[in-house]
Amino acid sequence: MYVMGGVVWEGFQILQYLNNMIVKEVKMLKIREDVKEALELNKPIVALESTIIAHGMPYPENVRVALEVENCVKVEGCVPATIGVIKGNIIVGMTEKEIEFIGKKEGVLKLSTREIPLCITQKKTGATTVSATSFIAHKAGIKVFATGGIGGVHRDFEKSMDISRDLEELSRTDIVVVSSGAKSILDLAKTIEYLETKGVLILGFKTNEFPAFYTRHSGIRIPEIQSGDAIAEIYKEKEQLSLKSAILVANPIPKEYEIEREEADRWISQALMECDKKGIYGKEVTPFLLSRIVELSGGKSLEANIHLVKSNAKVASKIAVALSK
Ligand code: PSU
Ligand code: MN
Fold it and tell me: Residue 287: inside a domain, yes or no?
């Protein structure tokens, strides 16, 4: 017997209460049938985000790439679950039609975690960022999530105070996120410091350097791990210790698609300058920079982006397979 809030509880009642809470939360999610089944059978699942579709790449490439990335996950024997909010419903595992819808639609909201309830009540369509996708994936019971680049501490942080919600959410969500580091639209060194403060473990996948999205190198050292199995083992240890936080796996862009740092820096500097001049701030900053970089590079950056996301989906799948063993 336990006394809580002046009420006497039996142990089984507490368990029932907790279970009801979890069921209530999961009921808020529209989980695709095959994802549901995979969850029940503990089969490997890889979550994918939708901001990269709606705000990270132009239509129609975005839709084509989203489906190709899903296919990379399937080829590795996992179930892909693209996450987003469609007309007020939280979707875990979008259908092809839903991916086409969110990729084509004008005015799709960009959702970090705080905007999810707003989007639901207004029955709007919103694309989930790394923060919102991690949050929803974790609620559904998915342990691995693949993306392109995460948000972080912006270069002019002293002035703007712009630090992505992604970092905070990673600090309190048990999930493995695979990315190619972060674009140098951000201050990478400060981003990594912040992740350390927040207790997010960063692991380099076959690299001992934090990758800078288009380039494999940043000069910032991180621990190197050789396999999905090894990452799964670390994740399980973390679970055992009830250490609440994400593991950020940094998977560098494949060598053959890497872009010279000087070239990428030129696009980035130009885009940053224009962003400042136009007075763009807040959540509009990242989407503006992403689309401007695609334009300035004449599509070259998009090509690199596509290949690194696919590579991340494959690595994430290997980790998901290892975790489901
Ligand atoms: N960086 C990229 N590509 C992206 C994003 C960031 O190279 O698509 C997206 C991700 O969804 C990420 C979000 O979670 O932007 C971060 O936005 P902000 O900087 O406003 O927190
Ligand atoms: Mn921001």
Answer: no
Q: Is 149 in the pocket of ligand 1 (CB under 6 A)?
A: yes
Residue 323 has pLDDT above 90, yes or no: yes
Ligand 1 atom nearest the C-alpha of 165 is 21
49 is catalytic: yes
pLDDT band at 83 (very low <50, low <70, confident <90, very high): very high
315: left (phi over 0), alpha (psi -120 to 50) or beta: alpha
Question: Beta partners for 145?
Answer: 47, 177
Ligand (nearest to CA of 301): 1
Q: Residue 8 is part of a domain; what is its CATH number?
A: 3.40.1790.10
Q: What is the pLDDT of residue 218?
A: 96
For 33-77, write each residue's pLDDT tens digit. Answer: 999 999 999 999 999 999 999 999 999 999 999 999 999 999 999
* Residue 37 placed within a domain: yes
Q: What range defines the domain where residue 201 resides?
A: 2-259+299-324
**Residue 108 DSSP class:** P
For residue 2, the model assigns a pLDDT of: 81
CB atoms within 10 A of CB 170: 27
Output the CA–CA distances (angstroms, integers) from residue 59 to 55, 65, 99, 302, in the order listed: 10, 10, 11, 12
162 CA distance to ligand 2 middle (Å)? 5
Q: Is 201 in a helix, a strand, or coil?
A: strand
Write down the pLDDT at residue 267: 97
Strands (E), 193-321: 201-205, 224-225, 247-250
Q: Which of 166, 173, 214, 289 to mutate to test the pocket of ligand 1 (most atoms within 8 A of CB)?
A: 166
The number of folded domains in the chain is 1
Quick one: pLDDT band at residue 277, thresholds 50, 70, 90? very high
Please state whether the predicted TM-score (pTM) of the whole model is above 0.85: yes
